[in-house]
Automatic annotation (TrEMBL):
Residues 66-421 form the Amidohydrolase-related domain. The keyword Plastid does not apply. GO terms for molecular function: 5'-methylthioadenosine deaminase activity; S-adenosylhomocysteine deaminase activity. Its EC number is 3.5.4.28, 3.5.4.31. PANTHER family: AMIDOHYDROLASE-RELATED DOMAIN-CONTAINING PROTEIN, AMINOHYDROLASE SSNA-RELATED. This is 5-methylthioadenosine/S-adenosylhomocysteine deaminase. Coiled coil: none annotated. Gene3D superfamilies: Metal-dependent hydrolases (3.20.20.140), Urease, subunit C, domain 1 (2.30.40.10). Keywords: Hydrolase. Belongs to the metallo-dependent hydrolases superfamily. ATZ/TRZ family.
């Protein structure tokens, strides 16, 4: 008896593109068919393998395009678009630098406007999930999520008095730590794994130097109790290393290990000033390094990513506060590793860079079994690049071309959870010009106050 033909009903069918899937079973698909039903991928394969009875509410021809999994940006500060073009030349993180706007200067309406600006930029450039931290997270979480992308966010946890840090004064107050931690836990209660899984919280420890030893232990206990991952800056400056060494007698990595935070659920940004013991310690713990290659290089530094990966750490990518172009960040991550190795090696190739921007990031966010890969049954998060442009033509190796010459501005379409949130390079849920204007106004007001 002949089996009845297979039927496939889809909400959206994308045809004709080349897909770089990150699925080892079919890593590269020419003349691909990507079928989406609800929030999931219902078919990922070649067009000629589509079931004969395939119906789609909407079909889009994408000849001349390349589709990749949506980027997962594991470390960013959307509000810090306010110091774009300035922070890069300070040689130090904005929180430690006098004379510029700081987190405690940002008013609620300004935070919302700047956060939406930063999140919009990330989404337009192909990020489908951002892990953001800064101030007023209780307000900015929803404001960013409304744009359509997945948003993890948290207010920065610290018990230092930040108003004195830029001037070299380090005072810790238990009440400040209690307030920031309680705010973060309340945020998690409201937003973690909500909005159909599109929002979440990682406890955002600002840094080992801006958190006292006792407060770090308190955070570690809270993370275990509430089953939350932790993100932090680690060994991001010589000042951090010096302050922690003087205060606690340890390196920042040793301190985080002692208090119970150095583990496989930690996402640690920068990781610049690590000695041999620190690198081995981080590798054994299985941490994720939130690698910020362009931001670090702009400051004259680079993380020892080849050694960290060899030691056992996972490398994922973030944009920090400079821009939100994860495609450019992939290029810098590859170049920085090769500079340290002094060669083009087989294990630092474009596929490794894309893994850092997608699959590794998804794993760091606890979503590694459903995000970061174009695979039937997984979440339908993807970015479509227009490869008909001069700098992307020809492209005998689409992945190599994307990593070495692609730009975030080449993104034409973004899908998050099956929803088309960017189409024709424009957002579908908001007025981009209005978001840009509001962010510009907020930054102008902040800079006026900082200069008086």
């Amino acid at each position: 008896m002949t089996a009845p033909p297979i039927e496939l009903d889809l909400d959206l069918l994308l045809l004709g593109a080349t897909a770089v899937t990150m699925d080892p079973a079919q890593p590269l698909l020419h003349d691909a068919a990507i079928g989406i039903r609800g929030e999931r991928l219902a078919f990922v394969g070649r067009a000629h393998d589509l079931p004969p009875l395939t119906r789609a509410r909407t079909t889009r021809r994408l000849d001349g395009r390349v589709i990749v999994p949506g980027y997962v940006n594991v470390h960013t500060h959307a509000i810090l678009t306010m110091v774009r073009g300035v922070a890069e030349d300070l040689g130090f993180a904005p929180a430690y630098t006098p004379g510029i706007p700081h987190g405690h200067d940002v008013r609620p309406d300004e935070a919302i406007a700047l956060a939406r600006l930063g999140a919009l930029e990330a989404m337009l450039f192909g990020s489908t999930l951002i892990n953001d931290s800064y101030v007023h997270a209780d307000l900015t979480m929803e404001a960013m999520a409304e744009l359509g992308l997945r948003v993890y966010s948290c207010g920065r946890l610290h018990d230092v008095d930040f108003s004195g840090v830029a001037d070299g004064h380090w005072e810790y107050h238990a009440a400040t730590g209690e307030r920031t931690l309680n705010d973060a836990l309340a945020l998690a209660g409201r937003w973690h794994r909500k909005r159909n899984g599109r929002t979440g919280v990682q406890l955002a420890v600002h840094a080992p130097d801006t958190c006292s030893d006792d407060f770090l232990r308190l955070i570690a206990d809270a993370a275990r109790t509430h089953d939350l991952s932790v993100t932090t800056h680690l060994a991001q400056s010589r000042t951090e290393v010096s302050v922690v060494k003087q205060r606690s007698g340890k390196s920042p990595a040793q301190l985080l290990d002692e208090v119970g935070l150095l583990n496989e659920r930690l996402v640690a940004a920068h990781c610049l000033y690590l000695d041999d013991d620190d690198i081995a310690r981080a590798g054994r713990a299985g941490i994720t390094v939130a690698h910020i290659p362009k931001g670090n290089a702009t400051g004259g530094t680079m993380a020892p990513t080849p050694r960290l990966r060899d030691a056992g750490a996972r490398i994922a990518l973030g944009t920090d506060n400079m821009h939100a172009d994860m495609t450019e960040v992939m290029r810098w991550a590859l170049a920085i590793a090769r500079i340290q190795l002094g060669e083009v090696s087989a294990d630092w190739q474009p596929a490794d860079a894309l893994a850092m921007a997608t699959r590794n990031g998804a794993q760091a966010m606890g979503l590694g079994d459903e995000l970061g890969c174009l695979k039937t049954g997984w979440l339908a998060d993807l970015a479509v690049f227009d490869f008909q442009r001069a700098h992307l033509t020809p492209h005998p190796n689409p992945l190599g071309t994307l990593v070495h010459t692609g730009l975030g501005r080449d993104v034409e379409m973004v899908v998050v959870g099956g929803e088309l949130v960017v189409d024709g390079g424009a957002p579908t849920r908001c007025d981009a010009d209005a978001v840009i204007a509001a962010g510009k106004h907020a930054a102008t007001q902040l800079w006026k106050r900082a200069s008086t």
